[in-house]
Amino acid sequence: MSTRSSAPSRAQPAQIAALWFGVQLIWGAVLGISLQARCLQLAPNSALATFGFITTAGALAAAITQLIVGPLSDRLRRAGYGRNGFYLAGTLLGAAAVIVFYVVPNVGALLAAFIALQLALNVIIGPYQAIVPDTMSPARYGLASGWLAALAGAGNAAGAVLAAGLGAVPSLGVVLATGLLIAAAITLTHLRRIALRSLPAAAPIAVTRTLVNLFISRAFVFVGFYTMLDYLYFYVASVLPPDFALDATRASGLCILIFTVVSALGAAFAARPADRIDERLVVTAGGACIIVGLVVLALGHALPVLPAAIALAGIGWGIFLCADWAFACRLLPPSAMATTMAIWNLAVVVPQMLAPLAASLLLARLGTLASPAGPREAFLLAGGEMLLGTFWIWRLPRVRRGE
What we know:
Elements: H1 13-16, H2 18-42, H3 47-78, H4 84-101, H5 107-128, H6 131-135, H7 141-166, H8 170-191, H9 209-239, H10 248-276, H11 279-299, H12 305-331, H13 337-366, H14 374-392
């Protein structure tokens, strides 16, 4: 699609963000529940090791894809084209890959299907990270980021519900693929009707102090997030009484549902403040909620504590995500947004590999790797990682609305 004259007021944040719902619908099912369940199905005697290996390989594929696709989409964008081709190709390939993920019969095929899914969805994610500055004025970055965070939470919640309710069965892959196709159709149809904002002249990409600090802060926060996510299933299994009505899979799915639903509420709450006040304050408020929730989980032993602490952490996560995307849009160079955001997004991808490694090493040293106390200590570690990321955000410069 050729770039036309700027008309950012015509872009509707909800329709722009629809594709993000479709992508997160798949990740909510696959990363939250289905990958673990499929590893248990296909490698019951080595499920944790299999899960760690597949997760690491997939994260590496995601990082490489974004570092290739992001700069390519920026080059085409500067030449006068849009990014819709990447969105369409990634959607079609991703829909096929998620169906295959749920039908493969062995671990090797599961690894191949998961890598294919990572490749496909990151063909979308790399260019899509620039969609806010592509379509919105700086004064609306917080609003657009709020919609993205809210629909990400809603997508994660819907995916978790589907995975917990249907189980890791082939029909789930079809449902997820259909959701992605519908979401992509909404966003692509809208993008054909609006004008992309003009880009400033291309400038050399430099590894600035701002980019480094943004990366480090985000990386610490996401290491904490993935530590929490990786150990949530095991934590839930350790606190459920033997005669509880739900098994660990459904109970952990319910926890993810609570977390993601309230994260959408947190993002909606933070959207306006992210456009009006120092976004470092918004990030700090979100981080504080997450840390308190994690500490309560780690120290609490009663089952009723679980949903309340999960909800508090989820609200904080939504607040963080809203300010996080808006902050990056204001600080990174608009002429190479997808390129620099691909580097920025390594702060999500790399923690997927580091979080289980760091937690496993710590728990092994403490002698609790195979103990019921292990998940609680992992949650304390996650809180410490979140705390570092929240403090680090204050090394970044303050930006004001419209900048």
